[in-house]
Design goal:
By secondary structure, the chain is α/β, with parallel strands linked by helices. Helices cover 27% and strands 30% of the residues. The structure holds S-adenosylmethionine (SAM).
Length: 203
């Protein structure tokens, strides 16, 4: 089945650019060096390639085969290797105590799936492993910036409060709802309302 994401990723260039997400770039070094990292809903691979260039062993999962094919090409052109798995997050087994880092950038899935996914993230991190997450908050609908769920799907936005509940079992090193200028390719541009989290599974 061709999804809206496959269509977007079939366009010329990179929908969210080739540079990593700004929050990930600022925080990635908290992930244990040379560790195993899982990038959730990773699309065209900009975050995965960045992390692989910094010595991590990266697995990128996304439902879009088109996106992950582009991610593989981008990785080889960048001189790094990444693992890619085409899967719906509803079916993907994150494992238990396996990841030094999990990266979740703009992963706006239905609420029941998100809650299950976040419970599985807590289990899947190794003790001492780090989650780095950035998502849009509902206030983004009042901002000039593009991106994020449409007004008809407000429930897909996230809040710090919800994330604290859903990620029970992790220690929050940093958690904030904030406004920032996002500039990521063609589809994420402008002043945006986001929630950012860095959290660690207790050792
Ligand atoms: C806004 S894009 C973000 C891509 C990437 N995280 C980034 O920062 O460049 C959202 C991604 O979520 C993926 N996605 C949405 N629902 C999904 C699901 N149920 N399972 C797997 N991937 C999903 C889409 O295919 C898309 O690549």
């Amino acid at each position: 089945m061709i999804t809206m994401w496959d269509e977007r990723y079939s366009e010329e260039g990179f929908a969210y650019g080739k540079e990593p997400n700004d929050f990930l770039r600022a925080e990635y070094s908290r992930i244990p060096e040379n560790g195993q990292v899982l990038c959730l809903a990773e699309g065209e691979g900009r975050n995965a390639v960045f992390l692989a260039k910094h010595g991590y062993s990266v697995t990128a999962v996304d439902q879009s085969e088109v996106g992950l094919q582009k991610a593989q090409k981008f990785a080889s052109e960048s001189g790094v290797a990444i693992q890619t798995t085409v899967a719906d997050l509803a079916d993907y087994d994150l494992g238990v105590d396996v990841w030094d880092g999990i990266v979740s950038i703009w992963v706006h899935v239905p609420v029941a799936l998100r809650k299950r996914l976040h419970r599985n993230v807590v289990s899947a991190l190794k003790p001492g492993g780090i989650l780095i997450l950035e998502s849009y908050t509902e206030r983004h609908l009042e901002m000039d910036g593009t991106g994020g769920p449409p007004p008809s799907q407000r429930e897909l936005f996230m809040s710090l409060y919800e994330l604290q509940e859903e990620l029970d079992g992790l220690e929050f090193i940093f958690g904030a709802e904030t406004d920032r200028l996002v500039s990521e390719g063609r589809y994420h541009v402008g002043e945006s309302a986001v929630v950012q989290v860095v959290a660690r599974k207790p050792a």
